[in-house]
Amino acid sequence: MRRSLACTTLLIAAFAGGAHVRAADDPLALARAGTAAIEARRFGDALAAFTKAAEMEPGDASLCFGAGVAAFMLGKNEVAQARFECALERDPAFLPAATWLADLHYRAGRLADAISVYETAQLRSPKPRDLQPQLDRWRKELELQSRFRDARSEHFVVLFETAADEPLAADVIGRLETAYRRIVNAVGVAPSQRITAVIYTRGQFNDITRLADWSAAAYDGRIRVPVDEASREAGELDRILSHEFVHALVSQVGGRTVPAWINEGLATVLEPAGSGGVEATPARTDKRRAVSQLHGSFVGLSQRDAELAYASSARAVRRLIERRGIDAVVALLEDLGRGTPFARAFQQRLAMRYEDFSASMARGSF
Ligand SMILES: [Zn+2]
């Protein structure tokens, strides 16, 4: 599901706009500061401002909502859930709080909760039909998932459809644990929570994720992996599982504000065979993308643009690791998880200005 932060900040600003601001600790002034912080992607500041404002003005749903959005972006899922629920208690017809809460449940694998939030929202929405397509997709997914079985290991839960897939699930879980050991050892941080992976057929995967054909797998709170003839080839399944595991790790350490080029670059560089193959792509096309243009998800890109984006991302992350060390990159992720704005965290941890880095990578001189 796509939600627009710009649209969200307008909603919060509607509360803060036009009012006379009397003092710095005025809830209106705090709400304005929180809205400005969300617009500037300073989610740590936004969370602090909205939390304080909500304490001073406990009846206001939009203040709870603002705190929820900031916490969600920081990957603080429990705080975000509590804040969205608080917004809905104050104002049960507050649709954005319902859609963000449902999305949060969905990403945590709580599909039935996501559906229930939508069903309640639909009863109160002036345009109940707008929510129907998403609800239909989730109900269909729940119906499929209710047939799934699970296999567990120390760090993973793997969901699969039929008893005949049990050996495959055991194989996947073994490969995930191998990737876990190798990657945690390389980066020096471990996920704090057990990670779920769902095994699909290609048809089920396309149906549920609706991603471009070039997508080998996905991570949206859970690892979703289609297993077909191609992915069962030697090495390919390990590559895919390792790549998606890194996304899970990045999201647990850095929250949801990590630029796509760092997320994809790290996942690619840490693949079992490294990033050599992926980085070779621009040599054929003679094009480079500046990493500052690669902050948003690659999902909507064409295959060719995606190849370029992955190549530029992998090269940038590999060079950062070679020149500054993996610990500096991990420290950057940890800063983002704490709410430090990206450019500041980058300069702090990688000892150069982000614009300078992006420009020298594009020139090939870093
Ligand atoms: Zn990826």
What does this protein structure show overall?
- Strand 2 (156-160), helix 9 and strand 3 form a beta-alpha-beta unit.
- The protein is globular.
- It has 366 residues and is mainly alpha-helical.
- It is built from 18 helices and five strands.
- It starts with a helix and ends with a helix.
- Helix 1 (5-16) runs antiparallel to helix 4 and helix 4 (61-73) runs antiparallel to helix 5.
- A five-stranded mixed β-sheet has the order 1-2-3-5-4.
- The chain has helices at residues 5-16, 27-39, 43-56, 61-73, 77-90, 95-107, 111-124, 132-145, 166-187, 202-209, 236-254, 260-269, 276-279, 281-285, 303-324, 326-338, 342-350, 354-363, and strands spanning 149-152, 156-160, 195-200, 218-219, 223-226.
- The structure holds zinc ion.
- Zinc ion binds next to helix 11 and helix 12.
Keywords for this entry:
single chain, 366 residues, mainly alpha, 18 helices, 63% helix, binds zinc ion
What is the topological layout?
Elements: H1 5-16, H2 27-39, H3 43-56, H4 61-73, H5 77-90, H6 95-107, H7 111-124, H8 132-145, E1 149-152, E2 156-160, H9 166-187, E3 195-200, H10 202-209, E4 218-219, E5 223-226, H11 236-254, H12 260-269, H13 276-279, H14 281-285, H15 303-324, H16 326-338, H17 342-350, H18 354-363
Parallel strand pairs: 2-3, 3-5
Antiparallel strand pairs: 1-2, 4-5
**Could you say which overall geometry the principal axes of the C-alpha atoms support?**
globular
Radius of gyration: 21 Å
Between the first and last Cα atoms, what is the distance in angstroms? Answer: 37 Å
In what order do the strands lie side by side in the largest sheet?
Answer: 1-2-3-5-4
Assembly status: single chain
What structural category characterises the helix and strand content?
mainly alpha
The biggest sheet amounts to: 5 strands, mixed
- Strand share of the residues? 5-15%
What is the number of helical segments per DSSP (H or I, 4+ residues)? 18
The ligands bound in this entry are:
zinc ion
The stretches of 5 or more residues where confidence is low (pLDDT under 50) are 17-23
Count of DSSP strands = 5
Helix fraction, binned, reads: 55-70%
Query: What sequence of helices (H) and strands (E) makes up the elements?
Result: HHHHHHHHEEHEHEEHHHHHHHH
Mean pLDDT comes to: 91
